[in-house]
Every structure is written in structure tokens, then in C-alpha cells.
Amino acid sequence: MSANAPVEPLGDATQVAEFLGISPVTLAQWRQQGRGPRWARVGRWIRYDWADVRAWVQAGGDRDDA
After folding, report:
1. Considering the chain, what percentage of its residues have pLDDT values greater than 70?
2. SS (H, E, C) the chain
3. Of the candidates 11, 14, 32, 36, which has an alpha carbon nearest to the alpha carbon of residue 23?
4. Given the DSSP bridges, would you call strands 45-48 and 40-42 parallel, antiparallel or unpaired?
5. Which residues form the domain of 43?
6. In angstroms, rounded to a whole number, what is the distance separating the alpha carbons of residues 4 and 43?
7. Which residues form the Helix-turn-helix domain (predicted)?
8. 47 in any annotated domain
């Protein structure tokens, strides 16, 4: 029997925007444009996996030179 690692709660748009230093409106615009960290709709809410957010930042974030 293997022990499961603790699961980190998903972040909402306000939390992720604050973490990234942007407004929730900018984050919403990025979603509409297909930019920003990966997100998922959970019911009627937008949620972000913190591992995906950190990976996106480490990969250079929203760089236009890609």
C-alpha cells in the first residue's frame, strides 16, 4: 500500500492573478486569448493547478518571443 502525497488545493483566478502580479481582468483576457497558465473549468468556476502555474512561470511565463 503506497502513501499518497498531500494534494495541493486548486487556485482560483484571483489567487493566481495575485501570485503573478497581474489583475484578474488581465488573467481573464489571457484565457480568452489562449495565453497564460493552463486552467480548467470546475463546474462554473475557473481553477488553476499550482504546479501548472509554477511550471508556466519557470518556462518564461507570457513571453511573446516564443
Report:
1. 88
2. CCCCCCCCCCEEHHHHHHHHCCCHHHHHHHHHHCCCCCCEEECCEEEECHHHHHHHHHCCCCCCCC
3. 14
4. antiparallel
5. 13-59
6. 25
7. 14-59
8. yes
- Are the CB atoms for 38 and 48 separated by under 8 Å? yes
**CA dihedral for 15, 18, 24, 29, sign (positive or negative):** negative
Would you say the pTM of this structure is higher than 0.85?
no
- Residue 17 in any domain: the answer is yes
For residue 51 the three cell numbers come to: 504546479
- Measured at the CA of 57, the angle between CA 10 and CA 62, to 5 degrees, comes to 110
- Per residue in 16-28, pLDDT (tens digit) is 999 999 999 999 9
Name residue, grid cell 487556485. Answer: 11
